[in-house]
Specification:
With about 500 residues, this protein is mainly α. It contains 29 helices and no strands. It is about 70% helix and about 0% strand. The protein is flat, with a radius of gyration of 30 Å.
Length: about 500
């Protein structure tokens, strides 16, 4: 039994003590606590840390004036359960995604101004993950990447809490210790954002100057801007927004170069004209233009949104495809044919799609379509195998089967839907390619001996079998099928799958 199983056995749900504790008087509760301390000896410092949360009221919450801690035991048990299940998966990502959803539980507590319980949740997850993550298959790197999820969650939870100086120091020491441990496991920048948040806090003089609008070239820092300043800025902005500190949000976003957030908040606070002017001056990506245009449109500022869209169609990545396709639809609603064409061209070059291609075929003047068509088709090759589904849709629409086959050849075997679409479309003219390619992809999966992917190998073989029958090549198929049974017959699960072909 591995360490995960052993620890899972030790994690049990605690009984509901509320009915037992409710009738007790203050004196009886104090006596009970003394008894528990005697029965479970810990260091004095440890008990003081745990009891400190109960000594004083914290900021008012929607539940009341006093902090009532959540029980972390079920959370730890669920995380262990997911990690244990992840040990048996070829891809740990599904288990980590589920744990990430548990991390998101803290958002509800933050919304209710209960940062202490948000800390309880993320601490339970972190401690459990630290205890068990080394038992996972870490080959794909997702186990390492999950520490970033925890890092950002910790930074937000701690910045949302009204920590005393002593608490900040204690947490800093804890994170330095965790960071040293993870450095030995080759985790990149473990808890770097959290440590930066604890170092700067909220009282840092440079940060305070920014909040009141005193902005310098290095933003909210006294000297060199640290490596993870942008990550921390995003976290801090979420906290400021949740707390309704909008003026500080705007000043801080501007100082830290968080252009999209700065512009959108200007709109949300009613500064529409300023948002447009600042956007035209400072926007550098289509993503920023899309966010600003959508914000303006949500405030019924159609003309201003259109102005930002036109400017956005001159900007670079990220977000070119998203802006282009959104602007294409909006331009149609607005009756702006030329803008719709410009947006569709912009979108197609960024991420090809048959939808944009067909719309351009309708919108572009018939005399200009031949030239436009050539430009669009020639632009497909610059993407390589990226956006293969959109490229193949266009190639097949234009009966360019050779181009579709060439692109499909470069795709990995797990791009089954796209490649199968090509095979279905070209089986009459490229039957030998379909059979050979499908069998080759199936062989690669079978040779890898990853039983999790055997069903996909069978899908490839079913395509080869069907086309072989249609092309009267059934004798060759039977010979190939028999060879597969001979080679893999010792594997019961695989043999059963092959026999059903």
């Amino acid at each position: 039994m591995n360490s995960l199983s052993k620890n899972n056995d030790s994690i049990r749900s605690t009984p509901n003590l509320d009915p037992l504790l409710a009738p007790l008087s203050r004196m009886e509760l104090q006596n009970l606590i003394r008894y528990v301390v005697i029965q479970q000896p810990k260091s004095k410092d440890s008990w003081e840390r745990e009891l400190a949360y109960y000594r004083e009221p914290i900021h008012p919450t929607k539940q009341g004036m006093y902090w009532v801690p959540v029980d972390p035991t079920p959370i730890r048990g669920k995380v262990v359960q997911l990690l244990e299940a992840g040990q048996h998966m070829p891809n740990i990502g599904q288990a980590l995604e589920s744990i990430g959803e548990i991390v998101q539980l803290m958002e509800g507590f933050l919304e209710r101004e209960d940062a202490r319980n948000a800390i309880v949740i993320v601490e339970a997850i972190t401690r459990t993950y630290l205890e068990h993550w080394t038992f996972l298959n870490r080959g794909n790197g997702e186990c390492f990447a999950f520490f970033r999820v925890l890092d950002l969650a910790w930074a937000e939870a701690l910045l949302s809490a009204d920590l005393s100086f002593a608490e900040q120091k204690e947490w800093s020491e804890k994170f330095y210790e965790w960071s040293r441990q993870l450095d030995q496991e080759f985790v990149d920048y473990p808890f770097a954002v959290t440590l930066l948040a604890l170092r700067q806090g909220w009282d840092d003089p440079a940060l305070q100057r920014v909040f009141v609008g005193e902005i310098s070239a290095i933003g909210a820092w006294d000297d060199e801007v640290p490596l993870h300043a942008d990550d921390l800025a995003q976290v801090r902005l979420r906290v400021l927004k949740r707390q309704g500190r909008y003026e500080e949000y705007i000043n801080f976003a501007m100082a830290e170069g968080q252009t999209k957030e700065f512009l959108v908040m200007l709109v949300q606070q009613g500064y529409l004209r300023q948002a447009v002017d600042e956007g035209l001056q400072w926007m550098y990506s289509a993503e920023q233009a899309l966010a600003l245009a959508q914000a303006l449109l949500s405030h019924n500022a159609k003309e201003a949104a259109m102005q930002i869209v036109k400017h956005g169609l001159t900007l670079r990545e990220p977000g070119r495809a998203e802006l282009g396709y959104w602007a294409m639809e909006k331009a149609v609603e607005w009756g702006q044919r030329n803008l719709a064409i410009k947006a569709a061209l912009f979108a197609f070059r960024a991420r090809p799609s048959l939808d944009a291609y067909k719309k351009l075929q309708i919108w572009v003047d018939e005399r200009e379509w031949t030239k436009t068509r050539e430009v669009l088709l020639s632009s497909l090759s610059i993407h390589g195998v990226r956006f293969a589904d959109g490229q193949i849709d266009v190639y097949l629409y234009e009966d360019l089967e050779g181009e579709a086959v060439e692109l499909a050849n470069g795709l990995g075997s797990f791009e089954f839907p796209v490649i199968a679409q090509v095979m279905e479309a070209v089986q009459k003219t490229h039957s030998h390619w379909v059979i050979q390619n499908a069998c080759s992809r199936a062989n690669n999966i079978l040779e890898s001996a990853h039983s999790h992917y055997y069903p996909q190998a069978i899908q490839w073989l079913q395509i080869a079998q069907r086309v072989s029958k249609e092309k009267h090549l059934i004798r060759k198929w039977k010979s190939y099928h028999a060879a597969l049974l001979h080679r893999y017959g010792h594997h019961q699960e695989l043999r059963t799958l092959l026999e059903h072909l």
